[in-house]
Amino acid sequence: AGEFCYDISQGALDESQEKLPSGATTLRLVNPKKVAKMPAVKRLEGITTVIVDESCRACNSVCDSFLFNCHALTSVTLDGLSNCTSVGDCFLYGCKSITSVTLLGLSNCTSVGKYFLAYCSGLRKIFVGNGTAIAGKLPKLTNCEVVVQPKKKAEEEAAVAVNVVPSPPTTGTTAGEFCYDISQGALDESQ
Questions:
Q1: Which of 140, 138, 187 is nearest to 2 (CA)?
Q2: Residues with Cβ within 8 Å of residue 104, at least 6 apart in sequence
Q3: Which one, 64, 89, 130, 190, has least CB within 10 Å?
């Protein structure tokens, strides 16, 4: 399945916008213009993997409704949010198919909004880094284990648990760029 790169400086992204090509299952959020706030991303049908790219390190906060009601979502990589200090309401709200979340990228987050990870009924493991404030901000979830480990160990286990897609280099990523998986075959203007 294909990967779609979305420049977050274009604002919020949801299924009502025709910015997401059909058939894309992986969404990579990039930040070439270095905006400070991660926009809302919600109700994305068919997206199973979201990667917050390393270029998003300029983001120091996340808007309300980030990954809100993304029912097909099974994997999230938040490495690019390492400078984020606050997360708005409804972060990963209603992502019922997600089984494991790695929050190592939120190592500097000290403020979490309402409904953080609410209604994630399939969630079984949350990976957090040792000594990070986010560990104390997690909600009480039934049948969900919080794994507090050194960063490297948690990343390795999370990758095995959720089959995380490795992040390719982002050098040269520009606004409006579409990433195409060449294993899908030929690509021309008729497609």
A1: 187
A2: 78, 79, 127, 128, 129, 151, 154, 155, 158
A3: 190
